[in-house]
Amino acid sequence: MNKFICIHGHFYQPPRENPWLEAVSYQDSAYPFHDWNERVNAECYAPNTRARILDEKGFIVEMVNNYSRISFNFGPTLLSWMESHTEETYNAILEADKNSIARFSGHGSAIAQCYSHMIMPLASTRDKYTQIYWGIRDFEKRFNRIPEGMWLPETAVNNATMEIMSDLGIRYTVLAPSQAGRFKIHGQEDWQTEESQALDVSKPYAVSLPSGKSFSVFFYDGPLSQSIAFENLLQNGERFASKLLDAFPDTEDKVRLLSVATDGETYGHHHKFGDMALAYAIQRIEADTNVQLTNYGEFLENFPSEDEVEVLGNTSWSCAHGIGRWQIDCGCSTGGEPDWNQKWRAPLRESLNWLSQKLDSSFDEEARKYLADPWAARNEYTDVINDRSPENVHQFLNNHSVRDLDDSEKITVLKLMEMQRHAMLMHTSCAWFFNDVSGIETEQIFQYARRAIQLNEDVLGDSLEKEYLSYLEPAKSNIPEKGNGKMIYKKIMDKAMMDLPKICAHFALDALFEEFNHESEFYSCLISLKNFQDLKNGKARMVFGCAEMKSGITWESGTYNFCVFHQGDYNLINFVGEFKGGDDFNHNFETARKAFDEGKFSDVISHLEQYFGETIYSLKSLSKNEQKRIFDAILVSTFEENERIYQQLYESNGQLNKYLTEQDIAPPKIFGAIVETVINARLLKEINCQNPDLFLIERLLCEADGQNISLDLEMLSGAFKEGIEHLAHKIVEAPKDLSMLESFENIVKLLVSLSFPVNLWKTQNLCYQLMNKVYQEISEKGEDGNATSKQWVKRFNALAATLLIRVPHN
Fold it and tell me: What is the dihedral of CA 599, 604, 606, 610, to 10 degrees?
């Protein structure tokens, strides 16, 4: 075999967590999803774990895990999010790597990535080392093996970066062909350049590093990778496969590797159904006996680097000017208005370089009071990031401390470590990549910078913010009303920045609408709830209590009294104050409680203000997550009350409204609004039942259609999706329950017949799983004469046909 194909996907999303809450905030631009991580997961990461292969009639004949057959890397911060938020996808990715080890001669398809997508040539030597070290340790923790290769953010490279990768055991990386300098063919003495001879990207090259070590580099096929990413090659799986297979010369006996590399999000997010095109192409390649699918590790073992290359330092795959995109107005951008520029990039880079130097100096000086080697401790801190259990944190502190530390010193050390973590996160490359300094990616790194500054203030008492902002001021936005980097920074910090009292305020407001245990995890804090009471007076409510809080990140703690007064709708006032002793609080609260019971709400507020002072939080001061959660809760309560009124009007006027519609007489608009509200509400209620009444759902849908009622399609589509997935899970848990299968089949038929789409992707997955689990067994029993089994097979065949799943032998 001398023809090999390796398809690499670089799967990455920038870290989006609020640095104080360690949670991703709601992002409007990702609607209807909560945030962009959720959206890209639904469109790309998850579909590639169960990519569909269809027959000529459009039926699913196979679901495959694409990750097990390609080469791939995932950003460590993205994997951390996936582990917490989409466990099924996360586990499928880990399982794919295990399967690829068996498929590719002991070489797993996953490769590591530098930790936080920092442009490595622009990083300090210490940061280069930590980024590579953290990336390797994170990989080892997740994939349970040592990585052979490593993906560099934006493939930005220089010799110093390759030296560190080599020192830490990385054997190879993948670069763009434009990053190759001169090269030398094995057995020849003269070096060649692109002017004298084209670089052959069908093989790995050896890089002789200044230290004398050798490091391997693969160069992907540039034009073909470009076609995949930007030229709609993924619109047709057959065309994609043919393009790959036809890339080999017809008459050549030498070993050739066709390597393509793109953003992994190409396969589903950037190009809808790209996951299916990839799955089909892989199937075609595997069926071709003249070509073999491989990954970089397997190929390098079988065909080690012989030819040499000199890599062009300070280059990348996404900037024609080397690495200018991340430090100057080089001309690279993603669009914007014709008169826009990216002159803001230089002051943004200068501001962070200055801040990094200040933070590193503070860290080095202060941490030496507690740690034997602060920078070695920083390298090992990745183990704490991945496991913040008290036992593990204590182990970390014991391993690196110069002596036994008291509680306040432990907090100081953890704050210093977190300061360094955020000092690296604030260099995430996406902040410079796009069109304007006001983008969400740049706003995100401003938050990391502010958190690092705050931690520095906590430990050392000196503020770096004023001088830092002076560096940001020249970073002018292309959007006049946005101003400059300083103005953008200050605007977002009001909501983004947190401390323990403000987190307590978020917790207190949530306590209005959901129940908490006495010991609860709330974002990054552990909260012990004491003396909680919930009072009601008509529409008005008042909750109060005491919260003992401890950060799960820095271990700092505090105890706070809180009281939320809700007069109905969005009229919320939230008081939080440091605990001053139980007697004082109880006395003041009893006075407020008496006024509340008597309905003297202005007196309630006066009493609370007298006790808490000016420490008041309103809805405006909350994070977007809490705003949305609370508004949703308020709206649900309001709608439930209004629905009861509308239901009465609907029942008393329903026949009249129906008669007017039948006579082609337009009913009053208020009638239409009433019917619309009631039918949408009843549909939603029925969908969310444990055992939905199919006939009632059909009748309501017919009524809506007959009276030209506008249904809330987005709400109902989402509810139908969740409802059918819940039932599908029940079927998988009790696969031989015929009556449940019959009911399920009827509901699926109804959903498929609807005039609006319902996402049945997960339902298809579960039914495919059910088929593989029990279909053959039950089918054989049916063939032996078992009547129930025969009926089950008949029902399942009908269900599979509705879901466009091809049953074996059907």
Answer: 160
CA 652, CA 752: separation in Å to the nearest integer?
A: 34
Residues 521 and 544 in one domain: yes
Helix H or strand E encompassing 738: helix 738-753
Q: How many domains does the chain have?
A: 4
Residue 769 token pair:
């799983």
Same domain, 785 and 809: yes
Distance, CA of 209 to CA of 230 (rounded, Å): 34
Give the tens place of pLDDT for each residue, 504-551.
999 998 888 888 888 999 999 999 999 899 999 988 999 999 999 999
Q: Specify the residue for token string 């305020």.
A: 505
Is 665 inside any structural domain?
Answer: no
Q: How confident is the model at residue 38 (pLDDT cuts 50, 70, 90)?
A: very high
Q: Residue type for 750, please? A: L
Predicted TM-score (pTM) of the model is 0.92
Overall average pLDDT of the 38-59 stretch: 97
More confident residue, 602 or 413: 413
Q: Which of 352, 552, 524, 537 is nearest to 452 (CA)?
A: 352
Residue 718: give the domain boundaries: 712-810
CA atoms within 13 A on the CB side of 112: 29
Q: Rounded to whole angstroms, how far apart are CA atoms 434 and 128?
A: 24
Tally Cβ neighbours within 10 Å of residue 763: 24
Quote the pLDDT of residue 650. 60
| CATH code of 269's domain | 3.20.110.20
DSSP H helical ranges for 104-221: 125-143, 159-167
113 membership: H or E segment, kind and range: strand 112-113
Last residue of a domain, one of 622, 656, 690: 622
Question: In 434-556, which residue ranges form alpha helices assigned H by DSSP?
Answer: 440-460, 465-472, 485-496, 500-510
**Residue where a domain stops, chosen among 605, 622, 639:** 622
Collapsing DSSP to helix, strand or coil, 47 comes out as helix
231 and 93 housed in the same domain? yes
Dihedrals φ, ψ of 323, to 5°? Answer: -130, 25
Closest CA to 710 of 751, 669, 676: 676
Rg of the chain taking only CA atoms, in angstroms: 30
pLDDT tens digit sequence for 148-178: 999 999 999 999 999 999 999 999 999 999 9
**CA 406/CA 223 separation, integer angstroms:** 60
> Are 464 and 515 members of one domain?
no
Q: Is residue 297 domain-shared with residue 204, that is, in the same domain?
A: yes
